[in-house]
Amino acid sequence: MPLINFILFDGSHHALEGHTGTPVMNLAKRHGLHGILAECGGVCSCATCHVHIDPEWMGKLPPMDEEEMDMLEFAENVDEYSRLSCQIEITEELDGLVVHVPESQY
Length: 106
Hints:
The protein is of the alpha+beta class. The protein has one domain (3-105): Beta-grasp domain (Ubiquitin-like (UB roll)). It is built from two helices and five strands, in the order ββαβαββ. It has helices spanning 24-30, 66-72; strands spanning 3-7, 13-17, 50-53, 82-84, 98-100. A five-stranded mixed β-sheet has the order 2-1-5-3-4. The radius of gyration is 12 Å and the shape is globular.
């Protein structure tokens, strides 16, 4: 199972094994990580699962679709590394992915 590394705003690090084919958001919610609210349940309609991807991993992610880009307009502290964790499917290629949870969701 791929390992996904979550860095929370408080500096804590959580290395969690995820099942391929499931969203990164689901992994965070299943383990009760603070800061991944996911109020819409992962249907890309709220932006409360906003995260920042470590720059070295951005090229390994599928590109954002228009819906995700539109939803990010509602998130705080958006930058070029912003993604919605509900839109990132765990794959073997993402083993080691580093995800930063922004302060704005605490």
